[in-house]
Amino acid sequence: MTTWRLLHTPPSAGAWNMAADEAILEHIYRGESKPTLRLYAWNPPCLSLGYAQSLKDVDITRLNSRGWEVVRRMTGGRAILHTDELTYSVTGSADEPILAGGVLESYNRLSKALLHAVRKLSLPVEVKENADAPATKKPNPVCFEVPSTYEITVNGRKLIGSAQARKKEGVLQHGSLPLTSDLTRICDALVFETETARENAKERLLARATTVESVLGAEVSWSRAAEAFVQGFETELNIRFERGEMSPTEIRRAEELVKEKYAHPSWTERS
After folding, report:
1. Which candidate in 117, 146, 147, 152 could, as Cys together with 131 as Cys, close a disulfide (CB 3.0–4.6 Å)?
2. 10 Å Cβ neighbour count for 203?
3. Element (DSSP H or E) covering residue 225
4. What is the pLDDT of residue 131?
5. Catalytic positions
6. pTM (2 decimals)?
7. Maximum distance among all alpha carbons in the chain?
């Protein structure tokens, strides 16, 4: 049985959340921290962009009018609006058995843990393997509308959006489980050619993605979902968790990364 660290961090700004994941990854690379499952939330709501996604996808005026933030992830993929969700991040060495073997192998292992977790919440989920994104003339800016390999779905609608980055420091995979609220709000912060196009995008999103509340007809608390995630990882991946906190040096490094990178225009605003 492998021992990992379990972190529950309080709801935080987008730049801090992304900086914390990278700080943890750096400490694991230096042998100063154990492989880590971090469970967290966002305050205020934040639009996160994939590593290579253009800021031109974002309607900054609309975003600001709603009091939302924007941040760029170190992982790929498309935009996600983080609010009313449970977010997880898995951080560890590429030599860690659970994370070894490349993106698809490790993604598949972690998907089994995620699948177990959401089934603990009584969700009738399945894993859809080798999904192909629909062909479109313009790249889709919304993560939850784009299929992915080993996608976790309910009745064909995407439930969890995840992305992975493999760096020299190790592996980071993070993802979102929408618990409640209106998934289509993300379209209010993105650029569309016309308002008709915006409304059409909302309709497509509702047809292709869902939330825990929409499936169950009842709300599931963040703490209950977090408990299910821990049980899923323990059962499927044979992990024993030690509940911990970020170390003082991890916190200091995260603060540096906020200033130098994740809250800095040179990182966030590049096209």
Report:
1. 147
2. 11
3. helix 222-237
4. 46
5. 143
6. 0.92
7. 54
